[in-house]
């Protein structure tokens, strides 16, 4: 389908790059360790092709955009836009920079350089050496924000860390529990908020909780109220004291336990031994980085979340504030800055914080 555009007094480059970002975002949760990338092909101010990287291991955005162009002869007079530098190496697919060179496209507009060390400017250099005019930096901040997980992973050598919790109107994350308190979550949010949380789970590669959350809530941490894949499940159980019949340990789904113990019998889950006399979060993030976990959602209780806030080891926080008051209970974590975004979601107010300004 060919789309004609009239853009009087409009920055055409921004318009086309925004279209790349719209396309790229369609793949949220499906690209795993790959970035989200969209691409459009422009011929005389007409979009003649577009595409995005739809799923991990499948064609990259530039391939899909070029393949969608019906008259390939027009490519030699066209400009291709892409929000991330075209790759220059052979991975699961051939290099996109080689494809662009081979198709004779004379002009390439890129949102941002790829932070992955196997690319990192090499795709740009390859195209420039072939005589292609390459422009870089169009809507760079927006392009980085869309792929903030990917950039954090490659630049900081750890997953992008998202904290999530729900708190009462008077600032408690849970009631005081005793032996008579039933196991299960103490709901602060409603069904619409829970659906949103399941969407968030489908968009991240890993999810983690602490010992107390597992013991009190017995969560599954999978995706049920949304279409998508469940994240890989991780929990902290320093002394391996949790009941093996709990959802995360019963073998129905694969889980990984961070502990100081060693396990000699068949537990049905993966054991990763940590040194709890040292900073466990550095060890956990190093392990996740080696496992190629680009992002992690922390749904743990107050102790787990507070430890990360204290260390400044987080990137984003999503906080639901409900309408009910507990009067007393477990104090909710506190982030001493103003939220970047606030919105009402049915029964709660959602506040979103970023460690860095985006």
Largest sheet: 9 strands, mixed
N-to-C SSE string, H for helix and E for strand: EHEEHEHEHEHHEEHEHEEEHEHEEEE
Beta-strand level of the residues, as a percent range?
15-25%
Distance between the termini: 34 Å
What's the helical proportion of residues?
A: 25-40%
- Give the number of helices: 10
Could you tell me the radius of gyration in angstroms? Answer: 23 Å
Major sheet strand order: 12-11-10-9-13-7-14-17-16
Question: Class by helix and strand content?
Answer: alpha/beta
Give the mean pLDDT: 90
Shape: elongated
Description:
The chain is of the alpha/beta class and 358 residues long. It has 10 helices and 17 strands. The protein has helices spanning 12-25, 61-67, 96-102, 122-129, 140-146, 148-156, 191-203, 211-217, 280-290, 302-311, and strands at 3-4, 38-43, 46-52, 79-84, 107-112, 133-136, 160-167, 172-174, 206-209, 232-236, 255-259, 270-273, 295-298, 316-321, 330-331, 341-345, 348-354. Helix 3 runs parallel beside helix 4 (122-129). The protein is elongated, with a radius of gyration of 23 Å.
Write the layout of secondary structure elements.
Elements: E1 3-4, H1 12-25, E2 38-43, E3 46-52, H2 61-67, E4 79-84, H3 96-102, E5 107-112, H4 122-129, E6 133-136, H5 140-146, H6 148-156, E7 160-167, E8 172-174, H7 191-203, E9 206-209, H8 211-217, E10 232-236, E11 255-259, E12 270-273, H9 280-290, E13 295-298, H10 302-311, E14 316-321, E15 330-331, E16 341-345, E17 348-354
Parallel strand pairs: 4-5, 5-6, 7-13, 7-14, 9-10, 9-13, 10-11, 11-12
Antiparallel strand pairs: 1-3, 2-3, 2-4, 8-15, 14-17, 16-17
